[in-house]
TrEMBL record:
<protein>
    <submittedName>
        <fullName>Ferredoxin--NAD(P)(+) reductase fdr</fullName>
        <ecNumber>1.18.1.2</ecNumber>
        <ecNumber>1.18.1.3</ecNumber>
    </submittedName>
</protein>
<dbReference type="InterPro" id="IPR016156">
    <property type="entry name" value="FAD/NAD-linked_Rdtase_dimer_sf"/>
</dbReference>
<dbReference type="Pfam" id="PF14759">
    <property type="entry name" value="Reductase_C"/>
</dbReference>
<keyword id="KW-0274">FAD</keyword>
<dbReference type="GO" id="GO:0016651">
    <property type="term" value="F:oxidoreductase activity, acting on NAD(P)H"/>
</dbReference>
<dbReference type="InterPro" id="IPR023753">
    <property type="entry name" value="FAD/NAD-binding_dom"/>
</dbReference>
<dbReference type="Pfam" id="PF07992">
    <property type="entry name" value="Pyr_redox_2"/>
</dbReference>
<dbReference type="InterPro" id="IPR036188">
    <property type="entry name" value="FAD/NAD-bd_sf"/>
</dbReference>
<feature type="domain" description="Reductase C-terminal">
    <location>
        <begin position="323"/>
        <end position="407"/>
    </location>
</feature>
<dbReference type="InterPro" id="IPR050446">
    <property type="entry name" value="FAD-oxidoreductase/Apoptosis"/>
</dbReference>
<keyword id="KW-0560">Oxidoreductase</keyword>
<dbReference type="InterPro" id="IPR028202">
    <property type="entry name" value="Reductase_C"/>
</dbReference>
<feature type="domain" description="FAD/NAD(P)-binding">
    <location>
        <begin position="4"/>
        <end position="304"/>
    </location>
</feature>
<keyword id="KW-0285">Flavoprotein</keyword>
<dbReference type="GO" id="GO:0004324">
    <property type="term" value="F:ferredoxin-NADP+ reductase activity"/>
</dbReference>
<dbReference type="GO" id="GO:0005737">
    <property type="term" value="C:cytoplasm"/>
</dbReference>
<dbReference type="GO" id="GO:0008860">
    <property type="term" value="F:ferredoxin-NAD+ reductase activity"/>
</dbReference>
Length: 408
């Protein structure tokens, strides 16, 4: 049985950053990263944007080259899935039966795409976007596709729809709720993006209930809606969220449910076991202490840094301002903070110019900003969120007043 001082399960952003941060914190013990995919750690957000569009090759997505990991003595155990954790023995077991020991375990597995539960969900031509292999399969099919359906109006669905429209495909986007981005943004931003996609030829349909995927000869040929109508499609992309990949930890007795529960140092309820990233259920100070999971690179990296410092014996606690981004067409959306529970919004700038910000308030406090092609607002607005500032809404709305002047 092989054994390491630190075993990191998951070779995504969080797992890679944990290994990097451990070495930066002068932890000189043995480190192994176990990844289910055969690739070295790579950036995932570009999969539904630049990589799918062909604007970035895969080598440009690598977080670090192979030589980096070798020089720092980080063992990359790739193409292996961890299926069980024994917290008493301090071991993990992989799908091929290998047992690996650990002193500290960092769980950074993220999640798996949520699948449709309807008939036809497993037909060829039905895709999710989570791994390089997912994107490669879609790219291989694209030349034979004229009509595509995207199910889900979140970031992944909208980004994929934008790429498909760029390729000249006829795209129908289906959202079960009454607006896109309903879970992450206010109505003003939703309506702006709906209009943008329609202007680029995407058929955006809201409150659309999917009945099933129909197919011919084992391959998807369309999507049937609850009203009985069928939308023809040679390609179906499903972007309806993820399921946190924590089953082995929960089976081992870790506290959790929708993710695995962690404290301020990202410790789980199991001794010497930490969890970070998309799968970590934590009390977030920017959500008024509510227990949430954050599906973002920022969260994965910042929690990885906290764990590395904790293992190195340094004081650390997770309290980082959440931020996100999305590229669609020539629009760059940058979000800082969490708009959960906002009771007022301030529009800064004119959406007709395609450069504006929406500022979210709760009891007068600035809790989040959505900035569209407005980098200055994003950079300067961060301080407003960090300090829970309560500026005059009229001054917030005045695009001629720099936000940094309101952060004092």
């Amino acid at each position: 049985m092989s054994s390491y001082d630190v075993v990191i399960v998951g070779a995504g952003h969080g797992g890679a950053q944990a290994a990097i941060a451990l070495r930066q914190a002068k932890v000189d013990g043995t480190i192994a990263v176990i990844g289910a995919e055969p690739e070295l750690p790579y950036e995932r957000p570009p999969l539904s944007k630049e990589y799918l569009a062909g604007d970035k090759t895969f080598d440009r997505l690598l977080i670090r080259p192979e030589s980096f990991w070798q020089e720092r003595g980080v063992a990359m155990l790739l193409g292996r899935e961890v299926t069980a954790v024994d917290p008493a023995a301090h071991t993990v077991t992989t799908a091929d039966g290998q047992t690996i020991g650990y002193r500290h375990l960092i769980w950074a597995t993220g999640g798996s795409p949520r699948r449709l539960s309807c008939a036809g969900n497993d037909l060829a031509g039905v895709h999710t976007v989570r791994t390089r292999a997912d994107a490669d399969r879609m790219m291989a099919e694209l030349p034979g596709v004229t009509q595509a359906v995207v199910i889900g109006g979140g970031y992944i669905g909208l980004e994929a729809a934008a790429v498909l429209a760029k390729f000249g495909k006829h795209v129908v986007l289906l959202e079960a709720l009454d607006r896109v981005l309903a879970r992450v943004a206010g109505p003003d931003l939703s309506r702006f993006y709906e209009a943008e996609h329609r202007a680029h030829g995407v058929d955006v349909r809201l409150s659309a209930a999917v009945d099933c995927i129909v197919g011919e000869d084992g391959k998807a040929s369309g999507v049937r809606l609850a009203d009985g109508s069928v939308i023809p499609a040679q390609l179906v992309i499903v972007g309806i969220g993820i399921v946190p990949a924590v089953e082995p930890l929960l089976a081992a007795g870790a506290t959790g449910g929708n993710g695995v529960a962690v404290d301020a140092q990202c410790r789980t309820s199991l001794a010497d076991v930490f969890a970070i990233g998309d799968c970590a259920l934590h009390a977030n100070g920017f959500a008024d202490g509510a227990e949430i999971r954050l599906e973002s690179v920022q969260n994965a990296n910042d929690q990885a840094n906290v764990v590395a410092k904790t293992i190195a014996g340094q004081d650390a606690a997770y309290h980082a301002v959440p931020w996100f981004w999305s590229n669609q067409y020539d629009l760059k959306l940058q979000t800082v903070g969490l708009s959960i529970g906002h009771d007022a919004t301030v529009l800064r700038g004119d959406p007709a110019t395609r450069s504006f910000s929406i500022i979210y308030l709760k009891a007068g406090r600035v809790i989040a900003l959505d900035c569209v092609n407005a980098v200055k607002d994003y950079v300067q607005g961060r301080k407003l969120v960090e300090t829970a500032a309560t500026p005059d809404p009229a001054r917030l709305a005045d695009a001629a007043t720099p936000l940094k002047e309101l952060a004092a």
